[in-house]
Amino acid sequence: MTLSKLKQEMINELTIELLKSQKEVRLLEQIVASLTQKSIQFQNYLEQANANQMVAANNKSLFEAIVKEVGNLEFNLNATDNEMAAAQSKALEVAIKCKTMCDKLIYTSDTINKMANLIVRKKALNPLISDDLISKLTIAGNDANNAVSLTLIALQSALTTVSSIEVSAAIASVTSKQTNFLHEVLNTDNDKNELNVQKLVHDTITRSENDSHHLEIAYNQITTQLNQKTEELKSAQINFNSLQSGLAAANAAALAS
Amino acid sequence: MNTYNESLTATRIALLENQELTIATNEANLNGAIVSHYFAHGAKITAEEKLKTTLQRDTIYQKTIAKTVSLNNLVCNLEASANQEKVNVVQTVSDAAIAASNVQVASNAVVRLASDLGSIYSIVSAADYGSEIYEHVSEANALLNNTAHDAEEASQLAMEASILASQLPASSNHDMAKSIQTATTTFMQAIQLQLETISDTIITETKEVQNEQNNLKMAEGLMANTKITHLALQNGYDIMKNEMNLNLQVLSIEKIATDFRFTVSFEPYKNPFQALPGDQFMANPVKEYVIFLVKEKAKTVFSIAEAEVMLVENTSNCIRIPSNDATTSLSTTILMSEIKDVTNQNMVLGENYVVFVLATFTEAYKRAINAFDDFMTAPSSVFTIKHQLNSPLASDIVVKTNANKQQVLHFKVNEISDFKVVYRCFFIPASDSVFVDLVVAEQLPFSNYSIAEDDTTPELISPLKEGEVNFYKKVTINEATTDCFGNRLLADKSYLPMVLSFASEDLGDAQKQFTNSLSSFQVAPFIFNESSLTTNSK
């Protein structure tokens, strides 16, 4: 084979290689373009999912604030209930004691009056009974009247207090029951609870967390794939460029001869 | 050659060539329209799925707001009760304080009375006023001391009661109830805000869906029109072939064992005029027909002169068919291995060929028309012999869940073991009547399909065909897997698994020896299970 024919064969081979390389570069360009688009798309999905997750997390913390406040009130109301009971029982004791006092005082005052009358009658017969005693008896009589009036007033206000605490305790009990119910509604996660907001809040969180998680995995996978194909493309381009130079050199050499 | 015939020949060739070119251009347009339609369909489905997802979010938030409103009612009632409690407790504290004061005052009065009696008793005790007085005074004194004792106890108790009452939480419970109300309102407002945002998004996305529906309709229209044009052009071409080219056809390209065969058929060449009775030579002007195989790239240079020369040299690179009665069609079936082209080369797979038919006239006919040239057709339509790759049968494609709860596409395909085939698997939304043909499938972007890998634990077993090997392949569906349009797979949505058998790029030049193939739409759909993806275990 002549030299020029050898050169021509070499040029032909190089040309074939070059075309092959060109095709390879084109295919890889398409793949890289496709993966790049997918990567951008999944990045958008991920951003959206993360935004949803933040909203869901924020909702959850707002919801938990409600639950916490209800818990605080429930705790306090339990204490209130105990305090109410203690106050109720004490107020009743006071009223009973006042009644006892009242009854005894009235009896005693009657006794004093009887006693005073006796002594005054006796004094008529017995001048030895001192005037001092008589005046003391008068004072005592007056004081007894006074004491009875005041005791009746005290009894009245003691009984008013009993009634007043009764009302406070009753309404406190209502408040307690409402709080307990609220606590249950907020914390019970089953189908019977018609107001199961907790489930909705948690479900939303779980969904958005799973979504973000899946998308992260997907995005990483796509990125790895994209990087790999980009490297392959670079190699293919380098190969193409070198073949192109080689062919140019071969053509130049062929022309020179 | 006779100039009239030369003109006719030139016309024949030009006509058919132009028509072929027009058809090729239109076919490119048709393929473009089909692919555009596919992408338009994809865009519509994307928009619809986006909207569906948003509507699902909307439903959840609607439920949430409804329940939150009910919750808020409970909270408002609670606040009212707590407020009432506050008012009552204030009253109670006041009452208890007043009672304590009154009891104290009463107690003091009793004590003073007791001391009065004590003084009287002293006097009576010291003097001697007689036993009757002494007894009465003594009794009164004793009773009063007893009563005074009770009075002191009462005053002590009343003070304790007042202290206990004052310790009752007057405003703290109400303050806490108000905090609950504030927290509930804040939560409610946040949900409401979300709903408003979602509402706006629904409006936007609904418009998008409408837009894409319109675009799809237009793409459908274009595709339909281009298809109609295509069919019409084909009809026109058939008529031209029939009128001008002896209806020359190459048909029935088939594989026979390791060889291929094809059939050439054509109408006989007829005398344009009715033959006179008894003149059998005029009725059938043709001595014999000779079929030549030419590479497409050489079709414009192969001439009747070259054909005649080859006949004179008694070439074996042709197929000779004796003439018949000139009324019935002629055809012959040719084995690929038995024919060479006019350059004496064997027929190869993947190469484009045409055939020419030369009709050699009888001497009598030539004398009668005073022309000594034979007739040769214009080139036939281009044909190519390729291997048809196999697709897995619809019944051999299945999606199953593995031990790791992942959904895996399994399939089995029979194929010649030497063929280098890549199996591109993709998922079509089942409910949307998506049109995917081979043209579309071959143009799917890299991201929208998954390349099947070998399945070492095959799920399907079928009998073997001779010379073929069962390939068991699988694709595991993961977080990055999308449908054929690049959309994320939707939970509980139904998809059709499709497999494109694609001749590998590694074949290089030899790739053109193969025709790719797409599996059937009559495959069992599968439902995408979102929990098959990795769960966030927290």
The two chains with the largest interface, and their residue counts, are:
A-B, 108 and 96 residues
Poorly predicted sequence stretches spanning 5 or more consecutive residues of chain B: none
- Regarding quaternary structure, how should these chains be classified? heterodimer
Taking the alpha carbons of the first and last residues of chain B, their distance comes to 91 Å
Helix content of chain B: 40-55%
Provide the β-strand percentage band of chain B.
Answer: 15-25%
Topology of chain B as a string of helices (H) and strands (E): HHHEEHEHEEEHEEEEEEHEEEEEEE
Count the beta strands of chain A. Answer: 0
Largest sheet of chain B: 5 strands, antiparallel
Determine the mean pLDDT of chain A: 93
Overall spatial form of chain A: rod-shaped
Helix content of chain A: over 70%
Gyration radius from CA atoms of chain A, angstroms: 52 Å
Description:
The complex is a heterodimer of chains A (257) and B (538). Chain A is mostly helical and 257 residues long. Helix content of chain A is 93%, strand content 0%. Chain A has 3 helices and no strands. In chain A, helix 1 packs antiparallel against helix 2 and helix 1 packs antiparallel against helix 3 (197-256). Chain A is rod-shaped, with a radius of gyration of 52 Å. The mean pLDDT of chain A is 93. Chain B has 538 residues and is an alpha+beta fold. Chain B has 7 helices and 19 strands. In chain B, strands 3, 4, 6, 7 and 8 form a 5-stranded antiparallel sheet that branches. In chain B, strands 12, 13, 16, 18 and 19 form a 5-stranded antiparallel sheet that branches. Chain B has a 4-stranded antiparallel sheet with strand order 10-11-15-14, with no helix packed on it. In chain B, a hairpin with a 5-residue loop joins strand 10 and strand 11. The longest helix of chain B has 124 residues, at 3-126. The model of chain B has no long low-confidence stretch (mean pLDDT 92).
